[in-house]
C-alpha cells in the first residue's frame, strides 16, 4: 500500500474516497466469499456514490437505535469504518455494544484500528455518552487488543463474545 501523506482522521462519509472505498470494501467482501446484502449495497454505491454517501452519512435507525457512521480517511485513501450506536437495547447490551468497526485488509496491523477507536470514543463524548460497551468474538485477538489499548475493562462473556466497558472521560 502507498504511504499515507498524513495520519487518517475519523470523518463523516465523503465522496472524496470513492475509488478506495469501493476497491477496499469489494476486495474484503470477495475474500469473505460473500454475496450478501452488503455486496448489493456496494453495487448500488458504485452506481450513485453521492446518494450512497448521503444515505450512510445521515443518522440512521439500525439495530433498533439511532446510529452514526464514520469513515477513517487520509486524503483519498479509505482505511475503515466505525459505527456508533447511540444507545443500547437489551440485545446490544449482550452482544454488539455501542461501537462496531473494521479496517480494510491492506491497512491492517499498522495501528489504525486502535487510533480510529480513540477518535470514535471522542465522538461518543460529543453524543453525551459517559461509558461505552464494546463486544468482540472470543477469538478475535486483534479486536480485543484494540479495545484494551483504549482502556476497555472486561465485563464477562455472553453469547460467545467478550464484553468490555470504556469510560468516556470528560475533555
Ligand atoms: C480487528 C481489526 C479492526 C484490527 O484492525 P488493525 O488496524 O489491524 O488493528 P491495529 O493495527 O490497531 O492492531 C491492534 C492490535 O492487534 C494486533 N493484531 C492485528 N492484527 C492481528 C492478527 N491478525 N493477529 C494477531 N494480532 C493482530 C496488533 O499487533 C495490535 O497489537 P498491539 O496493540 O499489542 O501491538 C481488523 O482486523 C478488522 O477489521 N477485522 C475484521 C472486523 C472485526 O473483527 N472488527 C471488530 C469487531 S468487534
From TrEMBL:
Signal peptide (UniProt feature, chain positions): none
Pfam family, one: Acetyltransf_1
Record-given protein name: GNAT family N-acetyltransferase
Residue ranges of domain N-acetyltransferase in the record: 28-171
PROSITE patterns to which the protein is assigned, alphabetical: GNAT
Domain of life: Bacteria
